[in-house]
Amino acid sequence: MGSLIDLLPLAYPDAVVVVGAALLGMTAGALGVFAVLRERSLVGDALAHSALPGVAVAFLVTGAKDVGTLLAGAACAGIVGALMMVGIERTSRIRPDAAIGVVLSSFFSLGIVLLTYIASTNNANQAGLEKYLFGQAAGLLERDLIVMAILSAISLTLVALLFRALKTTLFDPNFAGSVGLPVRVLEVAMTALLVVAVIVGLRTVGAILMVAMLVVPTVAARQLAGRLAVVLPVSALIGAVVGVTGALLSARAELPTGPVIVLVGFLVVMACVLLAPGRGVIWRARKLARDRRRTLTEGVMVDIETAIHAGPPPTAAELALVSGRDPRVLRRVLRRLDREGMLARDGDRLHLSEIGAAAAHAVLERRNLWSAWLEHGWQLQLPDAREPNPSDLRASLGDHYADRLQALAVKES
Amino acid sequence: MSDNLSIILTAGLVATAAGLLGPFLVLRRVALTSDAVSHAVLPGIVVIWLIFHTRAPLPVIGGAAVFAILCVLAIDALKGTNLVRGDAAIALVFPALFSVGVLGITRYASDIHLDLDSTIYGEIAFSPFETLPIAGVEIARSIVLLSGVALVNILLVVLLWKEFKATTFDPEFSRTIGISPKLLSRLLLVAVAITAVTAFESVGAILVVTLLIVPATTAYLLTDRLWLMVATTLAIGWISAVAGYWGAVSVDASIAGAMGLVAALCFAIALFVSPSYGLIARSLQRRRRSRSVQRELALAVKPQGAGADT
Known about the structure:
Chain A has helices at 2-7, 12-36, 43-62, 67-91, 96-120, 142-161, 163-171, 173-178, 183-202, 207-224, 228-253, 257-275, 281-310, 316-323, 327-339, 354-376, 393-397, 399-412; strands at residues 343-346, 349-352.
C-alpha cells in the first residue's frame, strides 16, 4: 500500500485520500448493484443511520473512543438493522421502502436516546461521538486504507464466487428457491455485503453521502449496459473513477471530499440518463423526432405522387388543400425534399425527381403490402405464429411470403 | 400554558399533520421521501443565510421549503423518465442537494455557527420558549405554525379524499375518469415537503421522519380500510407523543428520541399481535391449514370401509 501511495504524483495526505476514494468507489459501485436492482436503494441510508446506536453502545460497553471499536459497534448495529429489515419484509406485508423507513427511524431514535443518556452520565470523554456519522476523509490514515482494502477484497471475491447464485436470487427468487438455492441465506449475504460497503465509506464520505456512493455507479452503469455480468464491473469502474475525480477536485479546490465526490457522481448519472445510447432521454427524444419527420416526409411524397397520377402536377398551395396539411409544415417538408434532391420543380408546379419517384414507390409498395397483410394475411399459413414487424414487412416475412401476399392482393382486385 | 402541555401539543400536532399524509406515502411506496426532504433542505438554509444573513425561523422555513419542493419534484421528474426507479431516484437527489448545502457552508459560512443541530434539527424541548401573544394568551410559536399546517392537511385530505384514494390504489382507473395521478402525486409530495419543513424547525428532523413513516406502517399491519388506517395512524401518533414525553421525562432522555422509540414499540407489537397480519395470527393460520390438509390426506388414503367407524 505504501509503495502505491508513493507512486502517485501527489502530496502524501492527498494520495491517501485518492486511494481511499478509489477503493470506496469500486467497492460501493460493485456492491450497490445488489441494493439498486432489488429496489432497495435506500438500504444504505438505514444502515448509515443505524450506525449511531452502534457507536453509542460500543462506547457505553468499552468506554473507549478509538476508531476500531466504534466502527465495530457501527458494523454490528448495521447487521442487526439489516436482519430486521429482511425479517420485517419476509414475515409481514410491509414493503421494502416502509421496512427501511421503520428501521431507520427506530434505530436513529434509539441512538439519540442513548447519546442523551451518555451525556447525562457526565462522561467528559463522550464529546463528538456523533461526528462519526459525518466523514472526514482528511483524517484517513494508511492503516485505514489497509483495512478498507482487505474488506473490499473479501467482499468482491465473495461476489465473484457466488455470482451465479446471487444473480438468480436477485432476478427470480422463486425460481432460485425451486432449484434448491438457499435464498434466505443469499438475501442476508447481499445485505451483509452492503453493511461492509457502508462501514468502509463511513470514514471517507460520511453516512448520508454513502447513500449516493452505493446508488450512483449502478444507476449510471445500468444506462450503459443490460447484462449483470457487464453492469457489475462497469459500476465498479464508474465508482472508482467518480471517487478519484472527486478526491482530486476537492484537494485542488480545498473543499470537503465527500460532497465533491457525490456531486461528481450526480453529474455522471445525469449525463448517463440524458445521453445513454438507445435509452437516454435526449437519445429517445431525437429518435422520436426523426421518426416523426420521416413519416411526414414519406406522407408528402406519396401525396405528390398520387396528385400527379390524378391530374396535372400540383402547386404547393393545391397540395396543402388536397392533403389537408398545415401549409407551413408542408413548406418545411418541401424544402427538405428539395435539399435531398427528391423534388423537381416546374415553375411553382411540383414534380418528383427520379430518386424521389423511386422512394415514393417504395413507400407505396410498403403500404400496399401492409394492407394486403391485414386483408389476406390469414391465407398465408406461415410456418410459425410470429407477428411480423409492420415497419418492414418484406424483410420480416421473407421475399417468398411477401411475393405470395402481393399475388393474393392482385388476384383479389 | 404549561411547558409540558405545550410540548405534548406540539408533538401531537406534528403527529396529526404527518399522520394524515403518512398512510398515502406508505401505500404509494414512497415512505422514504420524508427522509430525503429532511436532508435536502440544507442548501435552502445556507442560501437564506447568504442573502439575508438571518436565522430567523420564517425566512429559514421559506428557504428550506423551496429546496424541499425542488427535491420532491426532481425525484418525481427522474422517476418520470422511466430510466430510474423511485427508490433510486430518491437516493440520487437528496445526497446531491445535501452536498451542495455542505459545500455552501464550508465555502461561505464557515465563520458563523450554522450547524445542523441548531437550524434544521430543532429541539422539541425548546419549543415552549418562543411564544406569540394570541388573543392575550402567550402561545408557543410552534403550536401556532403547526396548527396551521395540520389544518391545511386536514382540508387537503378531506376535500381530495376520493381523488387521493383513487390515484393511490388504481392510477390507471383514475386517469380514465379524469383524475390525473401525476398531479395528485405532486400535490401530496409538496404537502409532505411543506409539513416536514415546518415541523423540522420546531421538533427536529428525525421525529418528523419517524411520525411520517412508523405510525402509518403500523396501521397498515392492522387494517385494510383506508379511513381506518388514517384514524389508526393518528391514534398511534398521539400515543407516541404522550407516552414518549412521559418516558423521556421519567428517564431524563431526548424527548424526540423517546417519542420515536414509543412509535417503534407500537410497530413491534403490531408486527406480532395484529389480528390478521401479525406473526402469531399467521403462524396459527398456517398450522390450522396444514392440520386440515393432513386430515384430508389421511381420510383420502384410508382404504374403503376401514375408516367407517371413526
